[in-house]
Amino acid sequence: MPIRVAMIASECEPWAKTGGLADVVDALARALGQAATDELVLPVDVFLPRYRGVPEPAAVERTTTLRVPDPLAPAGSTNVTVTDVAADGYRLRLIDHPAAFDRDGYYGDSVGDYADNAWRFGLFCRAALEALRNDDRPLDVLHLHDWHTGPAAIARDEWYADDPIIGKAAILTTLHNLAYHGWTPRDRLGQLGLTPGDGVVGPRARGIDLLRVNIERAELVNTVSPGFAAEALTPVFGMGLSSLLRTKGDRFTGILNGLDTTVWDPATDADLAAPYSREVRAGKAACRVDLLTRLGFDAQDDGPVIGMIGRLDPQKGFDLLAAASPKLLDQGVRLVVQGSGHPDLADPFRAIASAHPRQVGFIERFDRAMARRIYAGADFFAMPSRFEPCGQGQMIALRYGTPPIVHRTGGLADTVIDQGRRPVAGTGFVFDQPTAEDLLAACTTAVAVRAAGGATWEALLDRGMAVDFDWVRGSAPRYLDAYRRAIEIRGRALAGGSG
Ligand code: GLC
Question: What are the distances in angstroms from CA 290 to CA 253, 269, 271, 296, 371?
Fold first, then answer.
């Protein structure tokens, strides 16, 4: 019997994106449709809040208005609209409730996180479950992502346990980021329809951690690389969840994200000045000239160019690159940095870029086309992340023939092979500690390998471009296995077994 899976997530590319979560939800949903035509009920459903920024969908299949339990509504319930959209390989189901989602930000504004996020994401989850009930078709797996979907796990167990559709579903929770827990203090529990002492929250609890409950209640939990799955069991990387994750035993695993090779392909990338491929790499030089010209750099200067792109979040280590930059600039390195997020993390780069306009380019926004030009036009791509559950930039950089310089952590350690340690297998440059010194040393080595050129450099690029992170062949079948296992565990638990 084909199994029916519904994903619930707070981001999905190209509709709503701040980070890698959006790419993964979109690419995985599409890859499942291609990998598992006989094994899954298709299309897979993906629920997403209809934030203000979500583009107007063209291919609307159906619009339904549902009455959804709402702990803050005087009547106890409220109207929510569900718009089903034929997306690229899956069904996008937009949950619309303007009071919750018609705002500037997804999670907050310049002042900070919205104070009613628990209510917003609680209502979102509740509406997704009501939409699934309303479909009146069996559901096998709820695939939840990060803290925003914790309320769905609570709801299944507390309010839908006897519901023939929701109550039977197994939960797979995927952890993309352990730094954000959706902590909801005691005085906001009402937003979730919870009260201290209600059986969900202890009588003396200070609040609820929505990421923690999502992990606790899931049949199966995974994170997005085997390397990070191992790290998450340690206090430093587990961010308060390491002991809980250890109690999960073999019900907590790592599944490496893929890379959508149709979305990320220098041979077909319309934003590039010239196409190129592993076989015919000549176009990369034109992309380099194009990037440097756009930045106002000397396009004829062959000196090394290091790119970096990401959310301006302490996780990503922008500060390490800023600290290493005086010595890098002394070595003649040029830097192209793109980031959006915390404005204070941008300050050092604003200063460096205005002091060295012909050596440092800083693009303080999320610019899809420019990001592609950086992946293609730079000579190296830096990812000095302090922790990185998987990371996508390094995979793109490999495919675009731009050797990554990465901290040996999580998914970065799983996907980049250090050229220094393994000269015949290396695909990039890997350093051990998240410090400016280690980053600088790795950049210096990388620059020297490029300057020496020759067969060593060519082989490094060739090996990088040959790495295959295909979703359909690689990760999607692993998720399918996880779904089956979660169903089995749920089935045993419902049959009264040990679970
Ligand atoms: C988060 C993680 C990143 C991962 C992405 C998608 O953004 O920080 O490492 O690649 O989720 O899973």
Answer: 42, 14, 11, 10, 13
Residues 120 and 227 placed together within one structural domain of the fold: yes
Task: Give CA separation, 119 vs 131, 318, 371, in Å.
Answer: 18, 33, 34
Query: Does 365 share its domain with 431?
Result: yes
Residue among 259, 196, 231 at smallest CA distance from 473: 259
CA of 435 to the centre of ligand 1 (A): 21
| Whether residues 433 and 490 fall in one domain | no
Residue-number span of the structural domain to which 393 is assigned: 283-466
Tell me whether residue 265 is in a domain.
no
> How confident is the model at residue 499, as a pLDDT?
47
Give me ligand 1 centre to Cα 100, in Å: 25
Residue 11 in any domain: the answer is: yes
Residues 167 and 19 grouped into a single domain: yes
Question: CA 352, CA 373: separation in Å to the nearest integer?
Answer: 21
Using a cut of 0.85, tell me whether the model's pTM lies above it. Answer: yes
Q: How far is the CA of 144 from the centre of ligand 1 (A)?
A: 15
What residue owns the CA closest to ligand 1's atom 1?
176
Are 210 and 151 within 8 A, CB to CB?
yes
Q: Ligand 1 centre and the CA of 448: distance in Å?
A: 31
The residue whose CA is least distant from atom 7 of ligand 1 is: 20
Q: How far apart are CA 376 and CA 266, in angstroms?
A: 7
Instruction: Please tell me the predicted confidence (pLDDT) of residue 36.
Output: 80
Split into its structural domains, the chain has a count of 2
What amino acid occupies position 487? I
Residues with CB under 6 A from ligand 1: 19-21, 24, 176-177, 224, 257, 388-392, 411
Same domain as 195, residue 50: yes
Which pLDDT belongs to residue 212? 98
Same domain, 118 and 238: yes
In order, the DSSP letters of 111-165 are: TEE-TTHHHHHHHHHHHHHHHHHHHTS---EEEEESGGGHHHHHHHHHTSTT-TT
Segments in the chain below pLDDT 70: 497-499
Shared-domain flag, residues 483 and 462: no
- What is the best residue among 177, 211, 256, 312 to mutate for testing ligand 1's pocket, by most ligand atoms within 8 Å of CB? 177
pLDDT of the residue at 155 = 98
Ligand 1 centroid – CA 28 distance (Å)? 13
* Residue among 254, 241, 221, 248 at smallest CA distance from 388: 254
